[in-house]
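To: structure subgroup
Subject: Chain for Friday's discussion

All,

I'm putting the inputs and outputs inline so they're searchable in the archive.
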Amino acid sequence: MKVITARGSDSAEAMDEVIRLLGVNALILSTRVRDGMVEIEAADDMPERPSLRSVPERQEPAPQGQSFADLLEARSDWAPMPKLRPAVPPRRTPWAQVTPTRLQAALLDRLEADLLPPEPLTPGRLAPRTLILGPPGAGKSLLAVRLAAEAMLADRACQPQVIAPRMVNPLSDDRLRGWLRLLGLTADRPLIGDLMAEDETITPVENRPQIIDLSDIPQATPELATALARLMPTEVILALPAGLSARQAARLARHWAPAGPGICLTFTDLGAPEQALLLALAEAGLRLTRAARGTGIIETLSLPDRAEMARWRSRICRTGTKSGKAGDQPYEPCAQDRMVHAWPCRPDGRNR
């Protein structure tokens, strides 16, 4: 058998060389590219087949009539079997002993310490100025009306002043005016520049708390919120929808954190806030001060507490065993539960 290696700049040129040397009946053994050239290894005949291995002789069967003792004695001459490594026991994860009751209590303890304010607010009591921030569609204008109604119900002598500054023309419709008309109030719509100029000479008026809605200021920044809050005691509220994703909530919380806002979760009746959302707000260092639900004006605000967070969690994550019964039986936690153990801690040991 004659074996050659033909080279060419491409496969066609190398194949022409094979045909020239071995003819059209050449057998291609291999093709490869080396140093930019195509190499074809060919032969003029089939390679020799390897000889078949010799069939081992058939072993004679064991003689019949031997006793079991004879067989054991014959096995004593065999080489000892290697010792097998002991089986590795299955790794017990920290979730093996986790129960719904204990896990829920641990989560609520952490959220209560890091998310809820140390001292709960008094319903209906407003600071001399309340500043409402938030993304578009978060319900800022309706929140301003609800705060005004709550203050008027708590103190009949209170007449809140709702201010909705604008850039040039109002970006939103007159829903705010219509809502305030139900309370016997009117909305002030000054230019943002005029409002900043008035702040240099304004003084707080008793029973006339200001509620500033920045819905028509799309370029609102933490610096603007700080400037509006520097001349009188101000409560800054960041309105966030309860259905907001955890990533977007964390981004907004980091953006507005310099203004030191409290969080008001809106539209909680449409869906409970996810556990990841609450953890993101707690890690940003913000406090959850209010929750809003429904589409009405009166009795729609609440002060979140441990019990309400437990109700939220019961709506978004299972709290029972595989059989559906609550109890202290081990179960496989959901993905949201695993975030509790992955929550980083502060140097002083407290979760952040």
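Points worth raising on Friday:
Residues 318-352 have pLDDT under 50 and may be disordered.
The domain at 117-304 is CATH 3.40.50.300 (Rossmann fold).

D.
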